[in-house]
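@channel sequence for tomorrow's demo:
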Amino acid sequence: MTAESDLAFDPWDPAFLADPYPAYTELRERGRVHWFEPTHQWLVPHHADVSALLRERRLGRTYRHRFTHEEFGRTAPPPEHEPFHTLNDHGMLDLEPPDHTRIRRLVSKAFTPRTVERLKPYVEGLAADLVSALVDAGGGDLLRDVAEPLPVAVIAEMLGIPESDRAPLRPWSADICGMYELNPSEGTAKRAVRASVEFTEYLRELIAHRRAHPGDDLVSGLIAAHDEDDDRLTEQEMISTCVLLLNAGHEATVNSTVNGWWALFRNPDQLAALRADHSLVPSAVEELMRYDTPLQLFERWVLDDIEIDGTVIPRGAEIAMLFGSANHDPAVFADPARLDLTRADNPHVSFSAGIHYCIGAPLARIELAASMRALLERAPTLAPAEEPERTPNFVIRGLEGLAVEV
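structure tokens (generated this afternoon):
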């Protein structure tokens, strides 16, 4: 175990945010678990430990199914943050069995391989249209013009959100996701609360409309489950599920797209190989998600004492699993700092693992592959127009934009 004062890990340092991977190397070399005082968390940097802990039932995304705040040694969130926590805490990502099992079983009906495969022509057509518009304009912002609108449109289409209502979706999502960063500010919390209230009100109205006028969309399907199934959803669970699907359904895809293309631009040999052989797209998607991981950290509460390498981590503590570090662990990935689009054995943890494995992973892969193929085919000379700026975030890693020319 290493004290935080001895670590190079600093998630608020712009230099660290620009390239956290050297610090991860130090963390892995110095031990399997490290106490980080600024966030009161135990950092876990090794792939084997992260992979095992994601499946460990002594850990949980919540503790409220077993303990009160007081019993767990925690303080309840401030009352003024309640709208965010009500929205967040009823989504399956932040629930444990049996509630997690019940909700995931119902939602998974919309993410069967057959259902996702049926979306493929729509995704590919939309990706082609977005890239064609980018080419016709002579370039633009890859994030704004392709990476962002594609997954937002796909998940909104699945949910049955009309096109005219989609403009606020990404801003709402961005404000809510701000609360997932380490030690969010009060300003971040206020924006998240406002977005939670507005998004909840919108979805409550949409659910009421779909109850009166059902369609073949996911919201209508959740209403049917709410009204008919023994494992029914409450209305709050429906609302929280829709928000989770939107947030998780596009944040990772947006950031994987821009992180991935920026990595390709900085590795011209790999970009040339990809342009010469489009059959590399599936392995490229996996390698780019590993190489610059969109979700760098994932947290778990310790429900029962657990030991890591001789260090007992007590009940009530919080563990921060470093996905970005795990994805660069040389014990698993040969020459991990090298981008290798032909990497065959690639057990990255970017989609998590265990019961909280990303339910939308198959759809995300289709979206990432569709936009990549469209850019390779329709913008074969795509190049950066300027150096991009990183977002000031650590947990959700991305760019402010990616200006490109064609």
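heads up for whoever presents: The chain has a mean pLDDT of 93.
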